[in-house]
Amino acid sequence: MLDIAVQITQVLLAVGAIGSVYRIYKGPSVLDRVISLDVMLIIVASMMIVEMVVNDHQDFIMFVVITAVIGFLGAVAIARYVVVRSPEEVAGETSEQDPYPGPPVAPAIPRAGSESEPEAPQDPVSTPRMPGLEVEEGEDESTSWFSALARSGFTPRRNEDQTKGPAPAPSAGPEADAEGAPGPSRQQEGRDD
Amino acid sequence: MIESLDADLILDAVASVLLVIGGLMSLAAGVGLVRLPDLHSRMHAATKPQVLGLLSLLLAAAITWRSWEWVAIVLLAWGLQLLTAPVSAHVVGRSGYRTKHMRRDLLTHDELASAVERISRDIPPSRG
């Protein structure tokens, strides 16, 4: 009975691994590939557990423990540096945000003084980018994501909370002035939670 | 531990069921990775069944080894997995939202959008 269960489990794990490999190959963004690699790592650990069940030994249990400990570090490290979106989504989003006043490039001009702070990259130009993704032009979001998301017309499609009105256009100028001057303290706590 | 034949049979049956459950959880993760349309839904499918699947596989292994010492190590491994799996899911989901790796037409309600707009509108006058 245990042999049949082991064979069934191996087949199921193999199908799961095939799905994970398909998503690693097909995945449109690097985040899809990262979570697929996490699934792949756990499936490998599961196959080692099944092998330990078959042969009745405990040699690989430390691999499982260490996988559980350090398996998330790859996802954390890569998700930290994902800044570029695919260009076709950028084209769809920028055509939708046209009715909003206040061009997105306008607040970037007084922000140029904050480029000297390496800890808080507020200008999208000064953000570090992955070298393989630099060919995708047209979208380079900084990690100061609140202001970046608010500027790019990402927010106003809400179902509720209509009382506050749309994002006001005249506040774009003083907003950019106030963000450039006083220092990166508040945006640090927004970023590093 | 337990030497009678019936107990062996029952323990093997329990271990077999747990093995198949673990395999089904991994299969669910793989199918969810293939079939789901969005980064965040794929993230849910990838990070949530794995914990239960790994728990059932580890318990099956500990049952077939017939020892309580390995149960402790198995539960240690599963506890560490339970601690670290939400971290990667949270970080991937946050990064996906910030870099807009998501399909907004699939959302019924974006609860974070109002918070983003409020903070981005309220903070700068308080600092200036």
UniProtKB/TrEMBL annotation, chain A:
Residues 92-193 are annotated as: Disordered. It is a multi-pass membrane protein. Its main location: membrane. One of its GO terms (molecular function) is sodium:proton antiporter activity. It is found in: Cell membrane. The chain crosses the membrane at residues 6-25, 37-54, 60-83. The keyword Transport applies. Residues 170-185 have a biased composition (Low complexity). Keywords: Cell membrane, Membrane, Transmembrane, Transmembrane helix, Transport. It comes from the Bacteria. The keyword Transport applies. One of its GO terms (cellular component) is plasma membrane. Belongs to the CPA3 antiporters (TC 2.A.63) subunit F family. This is Multisubunit Na+/H+ antiporter MnhF subunit. It comes from Nesterenkonia aurantiaca.
From TrEMBL, chain B:
InterPro entries: PhaG_MnhG_YufB. GO terms for molecular function: sodium:proton antiporter activity. The chain crosses the membrane at residues 13-34, 46-65, 71-93. The keyword Cell wall biogenesis/degradation does not apply. The keyword Transmembrane helix applies. It holds the Pfam family PhaG_MnhG_YufB. Keywords: Membrane, Transmembrane, Transmembrane helix. NCBIfam families: CPA3_mnhG_phaG, PRK12674.1-2. Belongs to the CPA3 antiporters (TC 2.A.63) subunit G family. This is Multisubunit sodium/proton antiporter MrpG subunit.
